[in-house]
Amino acid sequence: MISMVRQVGKLRLGLESSVRTMASPASTAEPSPDFNWKTRTPFKRLMIKPPSNYRTVFALFVKENPILGLSTKIQTIRLGKAWGTLSDEEKQMYRDRLREHKATFDDQMREFLNSLPEEDQFNRVMYMASRERFLANRKVRHLEKVTGKPKAALNCFKMFVLEHYRHEDGTKRTEDEYEEILGAPSMGRHVVGAHKMVLRARELAVKWKKMSKAEKAVYVEKHERKSREQSEKRMEWLQSTPEDHLEALRLLRITIPQRQSIVASSGLRWPVDQSRVGEAQTPMIEKNRE
């Protein structure tokens, strides 16, 4: 009974989503101010689009051999076992078909992108830039964690906020302790989750602005001392980290997408309003440089 209710709910949500998509044609789509690759940007809502591309041979195998009536997880497990039983010749057949499909898809996608209005082409460029930047930054963070790179010292305000959140031993402060330090009732006393953090940050920002330079000097001194310590640790890290790891980090940073490579890889005609692409992308690139 419960599973049936879930299926009906999913069907209803799917129908509502389809109605919303049909009710908002692509020609009236406005450029999105947020180009995060996880969000739905206008170019993704267009109705006419080439068929999906397959990233791997196994994805093509799954698409062509669906098992109806089973969940995606169970299908993947069973088809994974079936894929393992195929001979090398049968797997090579799928590899050849995938290569042909990708060639056809690239041509169709290039034709599709070049037929879009200028605003949608611009959104496509920003979408790819944001996605590639996200993936590159994730690799950078992972490699830094693996190699044990020291984190940068917190700024003065973040130290001030952290002092109100936790004791020196790292344990969280109670609501009463927090309000006693804040000197006022907290708006987030009866709030749970991330919104409590937002409310506290606002309260502490107000208090920080009202503090005198002498009161802030304590945190400035802490920040400078911590910065010196982290700088020494960073020098030790640079000396102890293998050269190939440092080179990998350097290459990841300089390959965070540049304007021309993004436009070229997206299949758009060159140039695509270079002034707009440069204005929107340059600050985001600079942000990731050391």
TrEMBL record:
It comes from the Eukaryota. It comes from Galendromus occidentalis. The keyword DNA-binding applies. Residues 39-113 bind DNA. Keywords: DNA-binding, Nucleus. This is Nucleolar transcription factor 1-A. GO terms for molecular function: DNA binding. It is found in: Nucleus. InterPro entries: HMG_box_dom, HMG_box_dom_sf, UBF1. SUPFAM superfamilies: HMG-box (SSF47095). Residues 39-113 form the HMG box domain. GO terms for cellular component: nucleus.
